[in-house]
Amino acid sequence: MPDMNTSSQNTFLKSPSNVRMQAALTIAALLKGRSLATMLPQAESRLHEDEHPLLRELCYGTARHFFSLSLVRDRLLNKPLKAGEKNVQALLLIGLYQLLHTRISEHAILSETVNATHKLKIIWAKGLINAVLRSAQRKRDEISDWAGSRDEARYEHPQWLLNRLKAAWPNQWQALAEAGNLQGPMTLRVNTRQASRDDYLKQLLEGGIVAHACRFAEQGVQLEEATSVTALPGFYDGSVSVQDEAAQLSAVLLDAQPGERILDACAAPGGKSCHILEQTNDLTLWSLDVDSDRTTRIHDNLSRLNLTAHVITGDATQPATWWDNTPFDRILLDAPCSATGVIRRNPDIKLLRRNEDITQLAILQQQIIDQMWSLLKPGGTLLYATCSVMPEENSEQIKAFVERCNDAILEPLSPEYGIDTGYGILLLPQKKSHDGFFYCRLRKKTVIMQD
Ligand SMILES: C[S@@+](CC[C@H](N)C(=O)[O-])C[C@H]1O[C@@H](n2cnc3c(N)ncnc32)[C@H](O)[C@@H]1O
């Protein structure tokens, strides 16, 4: 349970603020299908910087516990709310989240959540919100048992996703769902062009930040407690980047060599492109992404780290629109996916994704991998990666690719990282370390033997 006796909360208690209102508007937008990544920056722009941590806590926490909070809300209401009353629904969820999952004083929760009805112009709901929150206070002990009655509420995941996890991972699905409900650790990638990992660990310690070296990622450092990047020594000078340990394995497994021509096919915001460039000198790197807003972020990251790549906004399914017909030595395909391995970092996925998305994503991944394969030199390497735990997007995708393609060789990857699926390695999300990730490395034959 997070301790909300932080400076942000104190600021909030001292001065009348509209942080609950902004949180309610953000959650209401999420209920209408907008992501937190899109909505939170807008909400933050309307608040004082000191209030951003509380806003994030309210939004991420409410999304993380959405299924149990919705069950509690519905059982405490005398009659269901109209589907269109998204601001009321959102404010109730935020109020219940604070009562059931934070240490914010109950008096502050009640008064500030009810007061937000004025700011949201839903004064008619003031009595209703007050009554539901007071009822939750009285029934706190019973409420903790309610979630046990429904898997969705107990595991805080939609039923379709639980069904898929159970089918794919009959022995691990509960641990997977539970890992998805925790907050992921903050992990850094040390730019070893500037300092060794040991040196950077010392700098962190001197700054009062407790951290340890990651197990698999050679440049990885995991912090005991998340902190603002502004507190990290040398962040703005490119000494370090925020990147999960499993994601850091991309550059290692791609294994780019000096002088090579590399394509990072779905590159934004550029975390892996930057790592590839940090790791190997004298590369020609093309960083491609279909989303122009996101390619801007590749430029930002390259510039902070003082690195150079050829950044292109383009569609990987249509290379004819951007490729110069010179094949690549290596291609990293970090494919668009369900992100079911990183739910703990993006809990809104549980509300935004639909069952049918998995099949649609698998079709897109197939189109991209087929196109990318045609851009690879004979003898070249394609590293396929997703942050999904779904076999349709991972091992089944690769099995089908190898079966329809007569010049692909599956290369073995170290099984110490995770589960060897036979068509790549799956790292399941770990409660205390890395996210969920899938990797498969394919090599293109130099000579195709005729049957
Ligand atoms: C998993 S993210 C990539 C993360 C990135 N590799 C990193 O480490 O920072 C997947 C990316 O694929 C991009 N994408 C989706 N469809 C695409 C397409 N058809 N062509 C190129 N990029 C695409 C998305 O915009 C998104 O940025």
Describe this structure in words.
By secondary structure, this protein is an alpha/beta fold. The chain has 2 domains: 7-149, NusB-like (N-utilizing Substance Protein B Homolog, Chain A); 245-444, Vaccinia Virus protein VP39 (Rossmann fold, 3-Layer(aba) Sandwich), CATH 3.40.50.150. Helices cover 45% and strands 14% of the residues. The protein has helices spanning 7-14, 19-31, 36-44, 52-64, 66-76, 86-101, 106-119, 126-138, 140-146, 151-155, 159-168, 173-180, 197-206, 245-254, 271-279, 292-305, 349-352, 355-373, 395-404, and strands spanning 187-190, 211-213, 220-223, 240-242, 261-264, 284-289, 310-313, 328-334, 376-386, 408-411, 419-420, 425-427, 437-444. The strands form 2 sheets. Strands 5, 6, 7, 8, 9, 10, 11, 12 and 13 form a 9-stranded mixed beta sheet that branches. Strands 2-3-1-4 form a 4-stranded antiparallel beta sheet, covered by helices on one side. Helix 6 (86-101) runs parallel beside helix 8. It is globular, with a radius of gyration of 24 Å. The structure holds S-adenosylmethionine. The site of S-adenosylmethionine has 18 residues, from helix 15 and strand 6.
